[in-house]
Task: structure prediction
Amino acid sequence: MSTRSLPSAAPDQVAAVWDADGLGVLEGAVTGFASKADPLDGSAWANARREEIADRVVDVMAARAWFALPEPSHGRARRVARRCIAYSLAADTARADGSGTARADCWALTTHALELLTIREHFDAAAQRSRELLGVAPEGRLLAAWQMVDDALGALSTTRHEWVGADPATVAAAGWVLVDRMSRLLTAAALVAQSAAAESSPATDLLVNAARRYAWNHLRGPAPEAATPTHVQRSADLVQAFVTPGTLP
Result:
C-alpha cells in the first residue's frame, strides 16, 4: 500500500487507506527490518540493532491485539479510534523502514483525528474505551504494563481541558502528541487485555513481555499538552528566520 498516488489527498482519503491496509503495511515493514538481524551476532552493534527491531515487533503485536477485537465492541469510540490507530500505523511504519510517504501521511492523519478529539464526546469515548479494555489490575509481571496504562490515563485527564473545545487548526501544531497518546492507550490496553486472557504458555510470556515493553516505550512521557496561538506564532517566526539569510545567529 502506498499513498504516493494521493499527493493532494484529503485527510479522510489518507486515513481510509491506512485503516484498510495499514496493519499489513506495518507488518511488511517490520518483517523487512527484522530479516536483516543476525541472531547469532553478539556484537554491540548487533545488540543495539536487535533492540530497535524488538521495539518495532511489539508495535506490530499491539496493533494486532487491537485489530483482533470486534470493531462493534468499540461502541461510541469506534470512529475516533479508527482515526487514531491509522496515525500510529503510519508512524510505526515510518520508524521501521524510514518511509517518507508514511511520515508525511502522519500530518494528514493528525489533523483528521483532531477533528474528533477536540470534541468532548469523542475524546471521552476514546479514553473510556481504553479504560474498559484495561479492566482490573492483573497479577504477576503483567501488572507493570497495566500500571503504566492506568497512570497514562490519569495523566491524560489533567490536560483534557486544553484539547476539548479547542481550535483544531491551533492545536494541530502539537496535535500529534495527543493523537499518538490516545492511539497508544487504546492499543496498549488491548495488548494488556489479550495478555490477561491468554492461557499460560510460552506465547503468553511473549505477550506479557510485549505489553510491558510497549507501555514503557509509548506511555511514560508527560501528559500531552496542547499548543497555544502564541506557540504557533513563535514556530512560524523561527521558520521564517531560518529561511531568511542573515537573520539567525
Notes: DSSP finds eleven helices and no strands in the chain.
